[in-house]
Design a protein that fits this description.
Blueprint (H helix, E strand, L loop, with lengths): L5 E5 L7 H12 L6 E5 L1 H10 L5 H8 L9 H7 L5 H12 L4 H6 L3 E8 L5 E5 H4 L3 H9 L8 E3 L2 E5 L8 H6 L4 E5 L12 H10 L4 H26 L3 E4 L14 H17 L1 H9 L1
Helix pairs in contact: 1-2, 1-12, 3-12, 5-8, 10-11
Length: 286
């Protein structure tokens, strides 16, 4: 299997990203490690456990703790403006409860890029693990912070949020970084396109009036997402990329506390990876 100049691109999607966790578990069981990985939001969290060589870790983190009030709490959202306990998710869990293997993550030679959105300028910013160092968990928190249910994360003198606001599927960045071949893991079925909500756009403009990078990206997110999906369809049809996507819609929602649905999404990703096996190997051997 030839993985040279091959990138792995991981979409976000909140808890739908549990699907990707299952796909990566299948990869790791077969010792399939791409030299370059780029992820957005939940895709970035999946990339972290993949590069740290910890199969199943994201299953534990995002399923076993999901009903813990320290992980997610409506009361916290109403009183503090945060649905998720970010200190718990990116502090206590990786440091103590489900330890993240920082040593393996930083010492192996895989390139791992995390996408965040600058809340003021609106630009996508791409951080390589080789330069972020000790701030990595803060970076993951920033990439995973969704509008309306989280607060901007300060890093390097800037404010960041969900990387998917500016670059939902960073295939263009992977190509720009020199990857002539790319494997994509998406969390929506073939043909899915976003629809713009002018109501949400209006609320976002009021809520984030001092952070134009947030509300402006939200206003054009559907248009940009659909454009990149059209690009992906063209590249896939030409055999230039290989796409693993749900054969059926993932039942888990963007924010979901139902363990059965989350476990189902994880298993769906694992099973779909097996389904795509022959096509994937053929692409990588080509």
């Amino acid at each position: 299997m030839n993985l040279r100049n091959t990138g792995l691109v991981l979409e976000g999607g909140g808890f739908r990203g549990i699907y990707t966790s299952g796909v990566l578990h299948w990869f790791m069981e077969r010792d399939i490690y791409f030299p370059y990985v780029i992820g957005v939001s939940m895709g970035a969290c999946n990339a972290a456990s993949y590069v740290s060589r910890q199969p199943g870790r994201n299953r534990i983190v995002n399923i076993e703790f999901v009903n813990n009030s320290r992980y997610m709490s409506v009361r916290r959202l109403l009183t503090r403006g945060e649905l998720f306990g970010m200190d718990f998710i990116f502090g206590a869990i990786p440091r103590d409860l489900v330890p993240f293997d920082f040593k393996t993550f930083f010492e192996n030679d895989q390139i791992c890029v995390t996408v965040v959105t600058d809340c003021v300028t609106g630009e996508a910013v791409y951080y390589d693990k080789r330069v972020i160092g000790d701030g990595y968990m803060n970076l993951l928190q920033a990439s995973s912070t969704l509008p309306f249910v989280g607060k901007p994360v300060p890093l390097d003198g800037r404010l960041f949020m969900d990387g998917g606001l500016a670059d939902s599927v960073p295939i263009a960045r992977s190509i720009e970084d020199g990857n002539s071949r790319n494997v994509l893991v998406l969390t929506r079925p073939r043909g899915y396109r976003k629809k713009r909500s002018f109501l949400v756009d209006g609320i976002a403009r009021i809520r984030y009036r001092s952070l134009p990078g947030v509300w402006k990206n939200m206003a054009f997110r559907a248009e940009r997402y659909n454009a990149v999906m059209n690009m992906i369809d063209r590249l896939e049809a030409g055999g230039d990329i290989f796409v693993i996507r749900p054969r059926e819609p993932v039942r888990a929602g963007r924010i979901d506390r139902n363990k059965n649905r989350l476990i189902g999404a994880y298993n769906q990703g694992y099973e779909d990876a097996e389904y795509y096996r022959d096509g994937l190997f053929s692409y990588l051997d080509g």
